[in-house]
Amino acid sequence: MSARAIKGALLTLGFWLMVIVLVVYAVFPFYYAVITSFKPSSELFEVGYWIDHLDFSNYTAVLTQGSFLASIRNSIIVAVSVVAIALLLGLTASYALGRVRFRGRTRVMMLVLGVSMFPQVAVLSGLFEVIRTLNLYNSPGGLILSYTIFTLPFTVWVLTTFMRQLPDELEEAAIMDGASPWITLTKVFMPLMWPAMATTGLLAFIAAWNEFLFALTFTLTDSERTVPVAIALISGGSQYELPWGPIMAASVIVTVPLVILVLIFQRRIVSGLTAGAVKG
Amino acid sequence: MASHDTAVAGNTSRPSGRERGTRVRRRRVRAAWIFLTPMLIGLLLVAGWPLMRTFWFSMTDASLSQMGGASFIGLENYLVYDDGWYGVLADSLWWNSVWNTLYFTVVSVGCETVLGIIVALVLNANFRGRTLVRAAMLIPWAIPTIVSAKMWAWMLNDQFGIINHILISLGLIDMPLAWTANADLSMWAVIIVDVWKATPFVALLVLAALQMLPSDCYEAARVDGIHPVRVFFKVTLPLITPALLVAVIFRALDALRVFDVIYVLTSNASSTMTMSVYARQQLVEFQDVGYGSAASTLLFLIIALITVAYLYLGRRQLGGDS
Fold first, then answer.
1. How many domains does chain B have?
2. B36 → closest Cβ in A96, A119, A217
3. Which of A127, A210, A259 sits opposite B139 (nearest CB)?
4. Tens digit of pLDDT for each residue in B5-35?
């Protein structure tokens, strides 16, 4: 009996040890970035696990020198516009794909899924030409256009999954009353789709906020860069002496809003991610 | 959309039920295609057309400054004999990057799968603070790839990095390791970052599958006194395999096109160069749009092949219409 109790206690201990290891593994890199960002450059090269005193010099350096604020503004403009466009086009498309039976529906779904699996490099030269032709090179417009390639298929896919879960009775009543598909969509489904649209919009926002390849290729000047490119290109006197303090401060600035969003909406995010994948 | 509203208003002739049913259905199908049109045009503009142009450029001598005036040169960008073989397919650096990409994909997705299952099993247990732990697990997923690459680059810094510091104080190594500069280690540095960042995604998908499992077979197993490890391999694993496959495919397709982690951690170093890095270097830095497009086309074909195989296998789950 006591042997069993000991075994049980050991199992519980092992389990909690595992939980602690996993949490430390997940959180420590971010925690360490925060610590580093509050260190003055003189203390940067001593390894430490705690913050002794707050030093904001890295933050003032990032926010006052260069064009980091402009990058934040660009990132917000691009991400918000991309999400708005994707939701608008995605909502009507998901109604068609989720609620109406018609020939070719599976084919359209496959097309959407296929586009979402495109390697971005494969369209790089073609998109470069399109963006130049439309005079959008080195401007947020070019990024908004190019980001549609990954936000739109994703939005359509997830919204369609949510649309299918809504009960049939709603729509039947609307059809009996002679409502047109447009009225059915805007008056019956839209009010019910807000939670799903919030989830999808949030995921698309994060994807657009984090994008790097297009932003690096389709912008040229510092004032038009987005945040990831700005951080990647922060450089010091030479390749071997990167200003780690300001880099970590910039990283914390752009990550904290995302982490807060994720913590607030974690239930929604989990449901959106799994709707996008498991049911596909 | 005004035409739809007037169509409703004009519906006054009181047709018989069946006639009305067909008409409603036909109108719905027509509306469905109208609803789909903006999205399809959008995809054509940003995906279909650029892809076609990339195919075309791969058969021209286009350069970045002169994309319009390029002339057709057939398959010379891929392979040509001119006193020796030239072209992407004859470039040892390309085959090196193909190998790097495959190595990276297999190792990182493998680690993410195993680790993801462990995290999911932990999160599936009932314990106090589970929501908090799940939230903590989401943090790596939410952090931009560039930022996580920079964070790890700092932690893996050869002189001042905390990883070397820990390893030395634990007595595991004598000398600091040059994680990102050493050709033998840099691929592992990239894998470490990718595994850290992507494991939560796999874990969440597996967790969702775990939570849908029927509880009765577990009770039966418990009554029969079967060892939990055996239950996992005989009951749980087969039941979550479909979800696991989806997660693995999504991750594998992501890993095959990897670019940003590598660009930030090791730039264009040949020891970690992947197909995407190779293609972009040719295209943008060497300004050789034709050659770079040929490499992009090959990458596209490899990924398309895998995608088609996946779609073919997963077809039954897709449309829901028979």
1. 2
2. A96
3. A259
4. 444 444 444 556 667 778 878 888 888 899 9
